[in-house]
Amino acid sequence: MRALEQNRSFTQLIEFEIEPHQQSGLVSALSEQTECLAQGYPGFLSGSVLASDDGRRVLNYLQWQTREAGEAAFQSFEKGEQDFWHLIRAYQAKTVTFGSFQVVRSIERSPDNALHCRLAS
């Protein structure tokens, strides 16, 4: 891996496919779990829980300073009581897709309403 790639932030995407009546419970559980990750693991940058309009999908978006930080948190956290595997069983997920991505570019709006494009350094 080139030095430039080693300095990029790391994103984990976990998509759950569920029955619509399970969505609100899974959103709550993932929100709590994301908060635990934020408080308990170094390198956490941001996290979001997204719910589809049709009620059949929930996406958990976690962004870390480095791949190592994200992987270490996930490995440590999955041994706990409320791990991702528990959520899969408890909310009867039909499918779960895990994805890992290096952030190479992001666009953000600043408080002064300007757009800023940041390349990963």
TrEMBL record:
Source superkingdom: Bacteria
GO molecular function, a single term: monooxygenase activity
Record's keyword terms, sorted: Monooxygenase, Oxidoreductase
InterPro entries: ABM_dom (IPR007138), Dimeric_a/b-barrel (IPR011008)
Residue ranges occupied by any ABM domain in the UniProt entry: 10-76
Keyword field contains Oxidoreductase: yes
Name of this chain's protein: Antibiotic biosynthesis monooxygenase
